[in-house]
Automatic annotation (TrEMBL):
Family: Belongs to the Nth/MutY family.
Names of required cofactors: [4Fe-4S] cluster
EC number: 3.2.2.31
Highest taxon in the source lineage: Bacteria
Keyword Chloroplast: no
Alphabetized UniProt keyword annotations: 4Fe-4S, DNA damage, DNA repair, Glycosidase, Hydrolase, Iron, Iron-sulfur, Metal-binding
Protein name: Adenine DNA glycosylase
Secretion signal span: none
GO-annotated molecular function: 4 iron, 4 sulfur cluster binding; 8-oxo-7,8-dihydroguanine DNA N-glycosylase activity; adenine/guanine mispair binding; metal ion binding; oxidized purine DNA binding; purine-specific mismatch base pair DNA N-glycosylase activity
Protein's job: Adenine glycosylase active on G-A mispairs. MutY also corrects error-prone DNA synthesis past GO lesions which are due to the oxidatively damaged form of guanine: 7,8-dihydro-8-oxoguanine (8-oxo-dGTP).
GO BP, sorted A to Z: base-excision repair; mismatch repair
Enzyme class name: hydrolase
Length: 348
């Protein structure tokens, strides 16, 4: 049997029962693919069900507001993906009459859909012969064929895509792609791969040459930016001051608290001496409580987040600030670190 035959046979006996594998509906497949990008299946499944229940088709999704989508997306991170999904749904509604396209050439033109996602949807929904290359597939190809080129270099991307194209079973590309991805997720794992039960270990370069832990190779290009966020809680028994974020930074258009960003983590007296503090809250500033610093890690940023509760007093609302009832917090799209803090403070 061929490599593809071995993997497909293994897949049919060992695959996980996942809801998007029982359909050829391009909309449902798109939903699953975007939600599961850089997200574990276990974490993504509840979100998939929630989105599908609230938006059973692309037309209902397209009719949603950005706030609705971001609220449902809350906790997944990479919020630009949620915003791009809404743009995609509205494009499909406007240009394709609410029928999600299945052809790669149409899919690749949609917002937030790249080569990987277009290949996945077209092969799963319409059996179009497009090879899918995600993180799992990169790992399988690198180990099996002994490819040392970094997976995130321009040359490496071409080499791996070419290898995937050659390996693709043109007669059943959908199940071949599913098998490759599932094999990488379940057996050819990043750490502690199950080489002892691997159906293709006999022909695997990495297994034969004790190089399993050396492949794939990846260039470390990510520069981590450290930022220091000082959030201020101004609240009475029923209400609090909230801020709507702009659209140029992380958590675009979501909701948080009044914020002062500093270059370093300041001591309390340093905070009180900040000119911005008086500019925002006036002269009558008294701190009730300073909470421990929380380290919040994003893909390219490391945030040090500190919450400061101020004694409640009348303040002048700045642009983008508003007063809301505590009961409305559950309706707002909040970054995870903000949501957890407010949930604990107010027992939401």
């Amino acid at each position: 049997m061929s490599f593809s035959d071995d993997l497909v046979q293994w897949y049919q006996s060992n695959k996980r029962q996942l809801p998007w594998r029982d359909t050829h509906d391009a909309y449902v497949i798109w939903l699953s693919e975007i939600i599961l990008q850089q997200t574990r299946v276990e974490q993504g499944l509840p979100y998939f069900y929630s989105f599908l229940e609230k938006y059973p088709d692309v037309s209902s999704f397209a009719a949603a507001s950005e706030d609705d989508i971001l609220k449902l997306w809350q906790g997944l991170g990479y919020y630009s993906r949620g915003r791009n999904m809404l743009k995609t749904a509205r494009m499909v509604q406007a240009d394709y009459g609410g029928i999600f396209p299945e052809a790669y050439d149409q899919l690749i033109k949609l917002k937030g859909i790249g080569e990987y996602t277009a290949s996945a949807i077209s092969s799963f929904a319409a059996n179009e012969p497009k090879a899918v290359v995600d993180g799992n597939v990169y790992r399988v190809l690198a180990r099996y064929f002994g490819i040392n080129e970094p997976i995130n270099s321009p040359k490496g991307i071409k080499i791996f895509q070419s290898a995937a194209n050659e390996l693709l079973d043109k007669h059943r590309p959908g199940i071949h792609n599913q098998a490759m991805m599932e094999f990488g997720a379940m057996l050819c794992r990043p750490k502690n791969p199950a080489c002892n039960i691997c159906p293709v270990s006999e022909g695997c370069y990495a297994f034969a040459n004790n190089a399993v832990n050396l492949l794939p190779v990846k260039l470390n290009k990510i520069k981590i930016r450290e930022r220091y966020f000082n959030y201020f809680l101004v609240a009475d028994e029923h209400t609090l001051v909230m801020n709507r974020r702009g659209d140029k930074d992380i958590w675009a258009n979501m909701y948080d608290l009044p914020l002062i960003e500093t270059d370093t983590l300041l001591p309390p007296d340093g905070l009180l001496a900040l000119p911005q503090l008086k500019a925002l809250f006036g002269d009558d500033i008294k701190i009730d409580e300073i909470f421990p610093v929380i380290k919040h890690v994003l893909t390219h940023q490391r945030l040090f987040v500190r919450f400061i509760k101020l004694q409640h007093h009348h303040i002048e609302l700045k642009e983008q600030w508003f007063i809301t009832d505590r009961n409305n917090l559950k309706k707002l799209a909040l970054p995870k670190v903000i949501f957890i803090f407010l949930k604990n403070i107010f027992n939401l």
